[in-house]
Amino acid sequence: MSAHDPLSNAGETLRSLYAYVAYRIGPGADAEDVVSQTVERALRYRDSYDPAAGTPIAWMIGIAKNCLADARPDAARHSDADVEQLVDSKEDFTTGVAERADLHAAVARLDERDRELLALRYGADLSARQIGRLLEMRTNAVEVALHRALGRLRRSLESGGAA
Hints:
mainly alpha, Arc Repressor Mutant, subunit A
């Protein structure tokens, strides 16, 4: 495979891709189906990849967005797996479940743009620069948008969803 092949580092790319999709629709069979469809399309169109336009993961996420839209036009679900890090393993199980449920509900209350930014940053683990390239935004605009999205999420959690 050449250096211009977006699948030359497939292991790392697929891990990030699955994390992004699972963040958007939850882990499991649905996420695996979307990732499979994404890889199928990527293989079919790999000659169209332009490394000057962005990283392989950004290209794959662009394809995944289309697959998500095709597979689940109502895909606003979010995964508890992505908020597990907020729950200390020493915590009481009930408290941990309640916190994950609260976070899940707070994320669901965000608008689509905020959910997408958070999925790209924390699901796919993309940098602000990578997100900027993907969404055609300046890096500082992405950083500001992420900061504001996290602020809205924090306020929603603090208010208990009484928005």
